[in-house]
Design a protein that fits this description.
single chain; globular; alpha/beta; 16 helices
């Protein structure tokens, strides 16, 4: 990693179709010109015409959960393993926790986990991210933060913050190390900024994330970063309407827009009605809109709302998502092009760990789709690769706005690709590469560099 104050020249990069050199000093782009010298003590990286882009920003991600998921047992949307078949890492003692993610079964209880892992504490997260299930040994350890019903069946709905706090004294796993490793993985894909979409994320937790990952991190909850406040809308609560209105009014009282999680058609209808009641302000957005018919899309467009969606979530489940859906909902699942064509402002993101954190995977899925026998889409929903990539180039405070550009005086959050932009993106769409990024810089510091990337003086 280079010093923030060291001058760096990115040699022979392509910026907006023109091959130039780019000088970075003190964390800013200070010069773009055909030929720049490298002063004594400076570093040079030769790009051979590779595209120079602003660093990519993921507009909806869950940092703590995504970092933890890397070393978790991934059930990939399926059921629990059979009794005696639960994978346990080697060379661990019986006090070490088993952590699994991606559970596809909605009805699992502590008793079911006890059959698979009878001898150690276990927590398993449902693929939706909204439910954690604990086994009996885990309940015994963290029972002080559970309500009576949760202590019986181990099912904890939207209680991630409670569990995280309680687990600090019981699970020796170091989340800071996991965050550091995860942040570097993102940097290798060109990601320089994150918007954490976790509801109830505390200022302490946000600072912990910021201290561990190299990316710039903003939040939809903990602090007023100029972003909306995250609100959950469900359609199975008796007081959801009153609760939704109260949460929206509280956000408005703080001078903030809202980012409302709405997955089902009834939830989306509720959200639209509530926004009509409260009034829309600049920055209001809907997260997911996983079931959005034409009439709802037209209303979303009329209200000027942005939809932040995630094609990799749908791709992970594919046709099984269609088969598990209500027949009336199937034409409207996880739409992209259908929303764009009706005038909706659509932004792509990952929602990692529930979707794929690699932005280039999202670009490929959004522009190439999946084979028909594995696609969640009844009607093709793909968009052009340039439009897909543009979602990751916009400002976090204006995710549906214009793409950021590499400019003199701009902050040096940058990534260099392994070729000109059209060719690099074409390889992504064809599945010929998982990422075309060879170098990533955040605030003027090189935080990721592909082995073999040409450089001197670094």
């Amino acid at each position: 990693m280079s010093s923030l104050t060291d001058p760096i020249v990115l040699r022979d990069v392509t910026v907006d179709g023109e091959r130039l050199d780019c000088r970075v000093v003190g964390g800013f782009v200070t010069e773009l010109a055909p030929t720049l010298h490298v002063p004594p003590g400076g570093a040079e990286f030769r790009a051979a015409g590779g595209a120079l882009l602003p660093g990519l920003h993921d507009h909806h991600i869950h940092a703590l959960a995504a970092a933890a998921a890397v070393d978790s047992l991934d059930l990939r949307g399926g059921p629990l393993p059979g009794p005696g078949h639960g994978h346990v890492p080697q060379a661990v003692d019986e006090a070490e926790w088993v952590r699994a993610v991606g559970l596809g079964d909605d009805d699992v209880t502590a008793a079911d986990l006890d059959l698979v892992w009878p001898d150690r504490p276990v927590r398993v997260q449902h693929r939706s991210g909204a439910l954690w299930v604990l086994n009996t040994r885990a309940i015994e350890l963290v029972g002080e933060v559970l309500d009576p019903a949760e202590r019986v069946d181990g099912r904890v709905w939207r209680g991630g913050a409670r569990l995280s706090h309680a687990l600090q004294s019981h699970d020796p796993r170091d989340i800071d190390d996991e965050l550091r490793a995860w942040g570097l993985r993102l940097a290798a894909w060109g990601v320089t900024g994150l918007t954490d979409a976790s509801v109830g994320l505390s200022s302490e937790a946000l600072q912990r994330i910021r201290s561990a990952v190299p990316q710039r991190v903003l939040s939809l909850g903990a602090e007023d970063d100029g972003l909306p406040v995250k609100i959950i809308a469900t359609d199975h609560s008796d007081d959801m309407w009153d609760g939704l209105l109260a949460a929206m009014r509280e956000a408005r009282g703080r001078g903030r827009a809202v980012a409302i999680h709405a997955v089902s058609a009834p939830a989306l209808a509720l959200v639209l009605a509530a926004l009509e009641e409260i009034g829309v302000v600049t920055g209001d957005r809907i997260e997911h809109a996983a079931v959005c018919d034409d009439a709802s899309a037209d209303r979303v467009a009329e209200l000027g709302l942005t939809v932040v969606t995630q094609p990799s979530i749908a791709a992970r489940r594919g046709r099984t998502m269609v088969e598990a859906s209500e027949p009336a909902d199937r034409p409207w699942l996880w739409r992209i092009r259908g929303l764009v064509d009706r005038g909706v402002k659509v932004v792509l993101s990952s929602d990692a760990p529930y979707g794929d954190a690699n932005p280039w995977v999202t670009v490929r899925l959004a522009s190439a789709g999946l084979p028909a026998d594995r696609s969640p889409w009844v009607v093709d929903q793909t968009i052009g690769p340039s439009a897909a990539l543009a979602s990751f180039l916009t400002d976090p405070e204006d995710p549906a706005g214009p793409a950021r550009s590499v400019r003199v005086g701009g902050v040096a959050d940058l990534c260099v690709l392994d070729g000109p932009l059209p060719e690099a993106v074409d390889r992504v769409v064809r599945g010929a590469t998982v990422s075309p990024v060879v170098l990533t810089m955040i605030a003027g510091q090189v935080v990721s560099r592909r082995p073999g990337c040409s450089g001197a003086g670094a």
